[in-house]
């Protein structure tokens, strides 16, 4: 399978998912309109969009502050903070766009208590789709950090490291 076919398959699945979500949003909107009336449904949709803007402003500022602080201190939680900032952005977008299903999903991404659950579910989904060799925990060995085996000086030849001398003992280039 070529890479263009893989991209087409993923793009096709995304288009189908977005189409099904739009259809489900219309069905839910019509059902809510039948339940509480068309005017109240439109007002409720506007209210959830306004709530989305408010939550996006508050949680987005908090997530970006945490991300900036963890990047400044180079803490190991920077990846988590970056994920939080991304989820807040997606959640805010879902809340601002019209539709009650998107509002519910956006609210799950925006609230700190449920954001960790969404992040864990997305992590499991993405990890399950990775090849086995790339699934965490990934161990990477480097020849630069590998221990050099010790040689017994009486029985082995001296350790030889191949290389090129670029500077002389006085620090000037040899070439």
TrEMBL record:
Keywords: Membrane, Transmembrane, Transmembrane helix
Residue intervals passing through the bilayer: 16-36, 82-101
Matches recorded under InterPro entries: FxsA (IPR007313)
Keyword Transmembrane helix assigned: yes
Pfam annotation, one family: FxsA
Protein name: FxsA family protein
Source organism of this protein record: Blastococcus goldschmidtiae
Taxonomic lineage from the root: Bacteria, Bacillati, Actinomycetota, Actinomycetes, Geodermatophilales
């Amino acid at each position: 399978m070529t890479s263009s076919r893989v991209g087409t398959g993923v793009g096709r699945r995304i288009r189908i998912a977005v189409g099904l979500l739009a259809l489900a949003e219309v069905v839910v909107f019509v059902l809510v309109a039948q339940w509480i009336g068309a005017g109240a449904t439109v007002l409720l949709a506007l209210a959830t969009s306004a709530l989305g803007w408010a939550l996006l402003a508050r949680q987005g500022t908090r997530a970006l502050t945490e991300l900036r602080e963890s990047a400044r201190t180079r803490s190991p939680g920077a990846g988590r903070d970056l994920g939080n900032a991304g989820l807040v952005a997606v959640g805010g977008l879902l809340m601002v766009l019209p539709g009650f299903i998107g509002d519910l999903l956006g609210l799950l991404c925006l609230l700190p208590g449920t954001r960790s659950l969404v992040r864990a579910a997305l992590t499991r989904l993405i990890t399950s789709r990775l090849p086995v060799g790339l699934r965490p925990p990934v161990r990477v060995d480097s020849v630069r950090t590998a221990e050099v085996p010790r040689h017994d000086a009486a029985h082995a030849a001296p350790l030889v490291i191949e290389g090129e001398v670029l500077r002389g003992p006085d620090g000037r280039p040899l070439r």
